[in-house]
Amino acid sequence: MTAAADLGAELDDRARDYQATLAEHEKARDALHAAALAAWRAGWRPATISERTGLTASYLRKLARDAGLPAAPTGRRTRAERGR
Questions:
Q1: Is the pLDDT reported for residue 19 higher than 60?
Q2: 75: pLDDT confidence band, cut at 50, 70 and 90?
Q3: How many CB atoms sit inside 10 A of residue 46's CB?
Q4: Where exactly are the structural domains of the chain?
Q5: Which residues contact 46 (CB under 8 A, 6 or more apart)?
Q6: How is residue 56 annotated by DSSP?
């Protein structure tokens, strides 16, 4: 095999690997979004959800808006947010 053919085979293998894991990634992302929205519904602040998930507070607000949820609560953290 030539170097070009080896490189082509490598590209094909990596593309196949990527496609195989893409569905699992999307499933994990959807589960994370659902958990974040559940925390939002429970009254957690976007900053706290963001700290725990790595999602930005502004992205969380967008998810909540898209899900038809009310604006985020304000004020002090709840006991659940503090991990007690």
A1: yes
A2: low
A3: 22
A4: 3-82
A5: 40, 57, 60, 61, 72
A6: -
